[in-house]
């Protein structure tokens, strides 16, 4: 977008304020979004957006300004605006940007911007048609397809100068079925940092059937029992619990504010010895993958909890400096309009040594969670309430009939401490994290056994 010399000029303008650090984030993103509802295509949106965000830091003071005008004159004015609150004598300013070696996105075989709109529309129509083919009990179907091609350039006064290209494709189908005033939902939403070949890896016909059959199955299921019981969470349930009830508390901004239950506890035992929690931005193909974060730090595999011992936190450059940490490659932003903050990427509980069959066979009475729904989490203390969208009773080591209406209630950090069996399988879910703004993530886990969880149902 801009020459190296022009980037250095812009950073120089920002540092004339006397700031300690300046950064420019350039973004160009093009994408398509298609929604099908009520048996027709409701919306098709596509376009290109280009912009820049400039950040200036001086001690604890931070300034940020953005623009969609990428002319050199406009960017210099934006740099001045970002630095307007800093009034110090400038130091000896020396900026020498060192370009990083470009990294090719070789795993993408069908770039979405090279696929015709007709093929993309066909995806949502297939999802809708297959779901509605199940009959009158299917009352509502929403199908959506989305892709994006994001190119970023990041340069800062420390000499960082990187470029990255992130291609992401995702679709989802949400099916609502009804019978005798009972409503049940089935949702499937595959996605990843790959191109239109996503529709070959996850065929829309199959995905629509999984979502619809789940909704219909739960219509005829009896109510889940209520009370404390052993819970087995399938690898298909994704890592909602580790992301929401644990992962956010391991982000360095919460640590810096002292609002996390994990603050000041590095080196302590905070989970079962069977639990290892990882956040891995280098996990190729997963939705949270990238080569560099939105501050130009290389993506990393960060082991947060290892065999129960707290090892570290997820940081951006600012929080890492304040806490005396090395940046973990987790500085992320929704767009050029947003400041980078510590965010998860692909977060999961690492697989263990037990087969799912062994884990299920070990339980006399319990609940098997195959799919999770929505829920609420207190990110300060980890208390959660999660809906189970597909669950089954376990009797004498075997999965029995499905049950509906189950809710899991508990505390994420405490659940981590009592997990006593971890499976050798590992499954991921694709999602969007809504901490302040939005960022694409993946969450995952193997099959796990939790000896005691409060299950809300019907007594």
Automatic annotation (TrEMBL):
One of its GO terms (molecular function) is metallopeptidase activity. Residues 111-219 form the Metalloprotease TldD/E central domain. GO terms for cellular component: cytosol. Gene3D superfamilies: PmbA/TldD superfamily (3.30.2290.10). Residues 22-84 form the Metalloprotease TldD/E N-terminal domain. It holds the Pfam family PmbA_TldD_1st. One of its GO terms (biological process) is proteolysis. PANTHER family: METALLOPROTEASE TLDD (PTHR30624:SF4), UNCHARACTERIZED PROTEIN TLDD AND PMBA (PTHR30624). This is Peptidase C69. It comes from candidate division WOR-1 bacterium RIFOXYC2_FULL_41_25.
């Amino acid at each position: 977008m801009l020459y190296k010399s022009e980037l250095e000029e812009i950073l120089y303008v920002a540092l004339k304020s006397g700031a300690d650090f300046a950064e420019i984030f350039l973004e160009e993103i093009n994408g398509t979004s298609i929604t099908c509802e009520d048996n027709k295509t409701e919306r098709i949106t596509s376009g290109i957006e280009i912009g820049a965000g400039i950040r200036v830091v001086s001690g604890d003071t931070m300034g940020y300004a953005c623009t969609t005008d990428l002319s050199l004159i406009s960017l210099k004015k934006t740099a001045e605006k970002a630095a307007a609150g800093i009034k110090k004598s400038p130091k000896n300013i020396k900026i020498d940007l060192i370009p990083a070696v470009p990294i090719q996105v070789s795993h993408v075989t069908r770039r979405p911007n090279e696929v015709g709109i007709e093929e993309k529309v066909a995806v949502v129509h297939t999802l809708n048609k297959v779901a509605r083919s199940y009959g009158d009990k299917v009352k509502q179907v929403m199908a959506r397809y989305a892709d994006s091609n994001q190119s970023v350039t990041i340069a800062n006064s420390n000499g960082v100068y990187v470029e990255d290209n992130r291609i992401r494709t995702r679709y989802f189908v949400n099916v609502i079925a009804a019978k005798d005033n009972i409503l049940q939902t089935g949702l499937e939403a595959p996605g990843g940092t790959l191109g239109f070949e996503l529709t070959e890896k996850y065929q829309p016909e199959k995905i629509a059937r999984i979502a619809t059959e789940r909704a219909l199955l739960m219509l005829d299921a009896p109510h889940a029992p209520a009370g404390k019981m052993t819970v087995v969470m399938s690898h298909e349930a994704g890592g909602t619990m580790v992301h929401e009830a644990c992962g956010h508390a391991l982000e360095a901004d919460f640590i810096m504010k002292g609002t996390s239950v994990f603050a000041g506890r590095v080196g302590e035992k905070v989970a079962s010895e069977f639990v290892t929690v990882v956040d891995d931005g280098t996990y190729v193909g997963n939705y949270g993958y990238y080569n560099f974060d939105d501050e130009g730090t290389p993506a990393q595999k960060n082991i947060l909890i290892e065999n129960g011992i707290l090892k570290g936190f997820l940081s951006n450059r600012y929080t890492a400096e304040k806490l005396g940490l090395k940046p973990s490659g987790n500085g992320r932003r929704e767009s050029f309009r947003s400041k980078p903050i510590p965010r998860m990427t692909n977060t999961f509980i690492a697989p263990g040594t037990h087969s799912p069959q062994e884990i299920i066979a070990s339980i006399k009475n319990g609940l098997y969670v195959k799919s999770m729904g929505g829920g609420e989490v207190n990110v300060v203390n980890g208390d959660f309430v999660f809906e189970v969208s597909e669950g089954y009773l376990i009797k004498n080591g075997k999965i029995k009939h499905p049950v509906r209406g189950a809710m899991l209630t508990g505390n994420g950090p405490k659940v981590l401490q009592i997990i006593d069996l971890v499976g050798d399988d590992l499954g991921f879910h694709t999602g969007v994290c809504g901490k302040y703004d939005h960022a694409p993530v993946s969450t995952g886990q193997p099959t796990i056994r939790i000896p005691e969880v409060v299950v809300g149902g019907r007594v």
